[in-house]
Design brief:
With 185 residues, the chain is of the alpha+beta class. Helix content is 39%, strand content 19%.
């Protein structure tokens, strides 16, 4: 049983190959179905963890029992295959937090570049989000995050970052196309 507590080797497959295999494995099942022992073992190998149970929740979302992590619940097989990255979780939590500040209050009426009125987004105009979040971490340290099952990573204390972000950020409305062309400059 001790060997079950260690991560499995990811094997010789590329990340893209493992993701493709995991997606096709999940797609074999209907929502709510429990994987067979063989498919549970295959998903374990693809993700690099030992799962004792895998269920398809909906779409390509799975729920697992993972004794090595003392975890039962929804599992990001994509993140498992990509490799765990604390900094990505912190950025996800920081992006989520700003929706509760001035960012979430922005009215979207027309793209500032092309005039489009559909598929609008709020864009950081002068100082990119990445710059604001990096400066915050440099000045205050990396904030503590928690994973809320079914929602993702959130800041334990959002208020400090929201106030910091709102003091720096200014916005413009862009359509998805213009925002993609602009990038995170």
């Amino acid at each position: 049983m001790e060997h079950l507590m260690k991560q499995l080797p990811v094997g010789l497959m590329s990340k893209a190959g493992r993701k493709e295999k995991a997606a096709s494995l999940i797609d074999k099942y209907n929502d709510g179905d429990t994987f067979t022992d063989n498919d549970c073992s295959m998903m374990s190998n693809l993700c690099g963890y030992i799962f004792t149970k895998v269920c398809k929740v909906k779409h390509r979302m799975i729920s697992v029992d993972c004794p090595s992590e003392s975890y039962s619940g929804t599992w990001s097989w994509n993140k498992s295959i990509n490799g765990y990255d604390e900094s990505k979780n912190v950025l996800q939590a920081m992006r989520s937090a700003i929706r509760k500040g001035s960012y979430g209050q922005q009215q979207k009426t027309v793209c500032a570049i092309c005039g489009e009125k559909q598929s609008l987004t709020v864009d950081h105009k002068t100082t990119p989000f990445k710059t604001i979040s990096t400066r915050f971490i440099e000045e205050h340290g990396s904030p503590d995050v928690v994973n809320i099952d079914g929602f993702g990573w959130v800041l334990k204390d959002e208020s400090c970052f929201i106030v910091y972000h709102d003091a720096i950020a200014d916005y413009q409305t862009l359509c998805r196309s213009c925002n993609a062309k602009k990038g995170a400059k």
